[in-house]
Design brief:
The protein is mostly helical and about 220 residues long. It folds into two domains: about 160 residues, no CATH class; about 55 residues, no CATH class. The protein contains ten helices and no strands. Helix 3 crosses helix 4 and helix 9 runs antiparallel to helix 10. The chain is globular, with a radius of gyration of 21 Å. The N and C termini lie far apart (about 60 Å). The model has no long low-confidence stretch (mean pLDDT about 80).
Length: about 220
């Protein structure tokens, strides 16, 4: 994958291909870290950002727990949900003080680490250290990376981490199949947020109907 990214970057730069890069789309990656500072808070700001902050919090927490659940199945470990969410919240608070964005655990990166031989949380720590070192040392070079090359890498990673037999087995149960297809379809047609919200909402409806049916049938 690294060879493919380097080759695509060299081809786009040397041949002057009209493709978007990280630099042309996002302005590049800053070198170094900003000095920590607290954001300016006003009375109107919490009310203005609350809906967005709530959706980010729910989506980030759900994504992290899904990633942890997948990791349990791949490694045989058992994650601690409360610790995962508390650590993520503290990390996002610290990231905001440095001008960073909110983050979450992702299934793609975690599965890639595990398939590369990672077995403990140390792999995630080293991943963060390597990213920081890359940003400080080679940040300007990242501006030349074509977005198409990164998209190709994501497609390969998604294909390698997909469990096709598990996908087919879930379709044998109509409830699980409905949740799976709703999540899968809306993620492709719209975005990840819509897919997860639709899947969770549908699963909640099935759970509520099942509980209600048990209460009615209970003597």
């Amino acid at each position: 994958m690294l060879v493919a990214v380097v080759a695509a970057t060299l081809a786009a730069s040397l041949l002057h291909l009209p493709v978007e890069t990280i630099g042309s789309r996002f302005g590049g990656i800053p070198r170094g870290l900003r000095a920590p500072h607290l954001p300016v808070v006003s009375w109107a700001l919490p009310a203005a950002v609350f809906p967005t902050a709530l959706s980010f919090t729910l989506l980030g927490g759900l994504e992290s727990l899904l990633s942890a659940k997948v990791t349990d199945g791949m490694t045989g470990r058992i994650h601690r949900s409360n610790m995962e969410l508390v650590a993520q919240g503290l990390a996002n608070i610290a990231s905001a003080c440095f001008g960073g964005m909110s983050v979450t655990g992702t299934i793609a990166r975690t599965a890639t680490n595990i398939r590369a031989g990672a077995r403990t949380p140390v792999a995630g720590i080293l991943h963060a250290v390597f990213l920081l070192a890359f940003m400080i040392v080679a940040g300007p070079l990242a501006s030349y990376l074509p977005l198409a090359a990164l998209a190709g890498i994501l497609v390969v990673v998604a294909w390698n981490m997909a469990e096709r037999r598990e996908f087919a087995s879930l379709l044998t149960d109509w409830r699980a199949g409905a949740v799976l297809l709703a999540t899968f379809g809306l993620t492709i047609l719209r975005d990840l947020t819509s897919g997860i919200l639709a899947g969770c909402g549908l699963a909640l409806v099935f759970w509520a109907v099942s509980r209600l049916r048990r209460k009615i049938m209970r003597p």
